[in-house]
Design a protein that fits this description.
By secondary structure, the chain is mainly α. Helices cover 63% and strands 9% of the residues. It has one domain.
C-alpha cells in the first residue's frame, strides 16, 4: 500500500499522524486497564513503560497497514 495524504476537513495530513493519534487512543485505554488492575506498580519506570507500549502499538499499526 502506498501511504498517501489524507484529506481531513480540507487539510491534507500525513497518514502517520492519523496512525499516531490512533496509537495514542489505544495506549490510553491500555494504560487505564493496567492502572485499574495495579499492573503499573510492577514496572520500574511507569512513564517509560507506557512510552514503550505506545511505540509498540504505533509500530504494529504501521506494519499492519503497510502489509495491505
Amino acid at each position: 500500500m502506498r501511504f498517501t495524504d489524507i484529506n481531513l476537513f480540507g487539510v491534507y495530513v500525513a497518514p502517520v499522524s492519523v496512525m499516531m493519534v490512533a496509537a495514542w487512543v489505544v495506549t490510553i485505554s491500555l494504560r487505564r486497564f493496567a492502572a485499574r488492575f495495579g499492573l503499573l506498580r510492577h514496572v520500574w519506570h511507569p512513564s517509560l513503560f507506557v512510552f514503550a507500549v505506545y511505540m509498540i502499538v504505533l509500530s504494529s499499526i504501521v506494519l499492519v497497514i503497510a502489509a495491505r
